[in-house]
Design a protein that fits this description.
- This protein is mainly alpha-helical.
- The chain folds into two domains: 40 residues; 228 residues, MetI-like (MetI-like fold, Orthogonal Bundle).
- The chain is 75% helix and 1% strand.
- The protein is built from 13 helices and two strands.
- It has a two-stranded antiparallel sheet.
- β1 and β2 form a beta hairpin.
- It is globular and about 75 Å long.
Length: 294
């Protein structure tokens, strides 16, 4: 009897492994091997053309003396400080609107989500035209009302906030959907009880809606943080990291070291350090938010 069970179970196990084999092969080739190769590169100097040269921990010693990399980290932090609160406020506002009985609600839900599926390159080109100093639509609107032109992309003061605004427009539709799902899962009885107890509209939102949206809020904050740390397309296409390195993001700096200067080993060390920074920030952020919840 034991042999019968064993023989009937083996074909299923084999077929399961066979079906999973393409994914495992894909994972090994496109994730496992590059990750292993990156760990090897960390301890080498390599310019793609000449053979690798083992240099030990010298890439890390260079990293901690690289002021421009830490400037790029600071720029990324500025972007996150602007982008994440703006993303949450705008997404929550539109989610509240779309959660009401509104004519054409399905149409508006689709419209808000469209920028998410539009190519980042297309969005970057569009906003480059909108933010143009002389011929841009935004400055044209400002001057038509008697104001002065704003140097959106040519001033170190305005460049990163402009990119944060563009990234918010690009991604907000995804977070609108997440908040909308959270709002629709709040039982109507909670609002009925609050109304009976005399709570105003603001009190119902603050005491009922917001606390019950906390799990979704944690998800949005973490996803926005990870997405913000991966900022690359916008500064690469629009400003190239300028003016005066004010929009140089961490990922763009790593890209430049790898593919502009062929410092592959140093870029690998930067990437590893940057990944550790992201991990620490997300863990700290999650811990702080969860402490606020519980």
């Amino acid at each position: 009897m034991h042999k019968t069970k064993h023989s009937t179970r083996l074909p299923g196990e084999r077929s399961g492994l066979l079906m999973a084999a393409p994914y495992l092969i894909h994972l090994s080739i496109f994730f496992g091997y590059p990750l292993l190769f990156a760990f090897v590169l960390v301890f080498h100097r390599w310019d793609i053309v000449t053979p690798m040269e083992f240099i030990g921990l010298r890439n890390f010693a260079r990293l901690f003396q690289d002021d421009l990399f830490f400037r790029a980290l600071a720029n990324t932090g500025v972007f996150l400080v602007i982008h994440i609160p703006l993303q949450i406020i705008v997404a929550l506002f539109f989610a509240e609107l779309l959660n009401r009985k509104l004519r054409g609600r399905s149409f508006f839900r689709t419209v808000y989500f469209l920028p998410v599926v539009v190519s980042g390159v297309v969005v970057a080109i569009l906003f480059q035209r909108l933010f143009a100093f002389d011929t841009g639509y935004f400055n044209g609107l400002i001057t038509s009302m008697g104001g002065t032109r704003v140097p959106w992309l040519v001033s170190p003061k305005w460049a990163m906030p402009s990119i944060a605004l563009m990234a918010t427009w690009k991604n907000v539709g995804f977070y609108v959907i997440l908040f909308l799902v959270g709002l629709q899962n709040i039982p109507a009885s909670m609002y009925e009880v609050a109304t009976i107890e005399g709570a105003s509209t603001w009190q119902r939102w603050w005491r009922v809606t917001l606390p019950l949206l906390n799990p979704m809020l944690v998800t949005v904050v973490v996803l926005s943080t990870i997405g913000g740390f991966s900022l690359f397309v916008e500064p690469y296409l629009i400003t190239g990291g300028g003016p005066m390195n004010s929009t140089l993001s961490s990922v763009l700096y790593i890209y430049n070291q790898a593919f502009s200067f062929n410092h592959m080993g140093y870029a690998a060390a930067l990437g590893l350090f940057f990944a550790l920074v992201i991990l620490m920030v997300v863990l700290l952020q999650r811990r702080l938010v969860e402490e606020d919840i519980y």
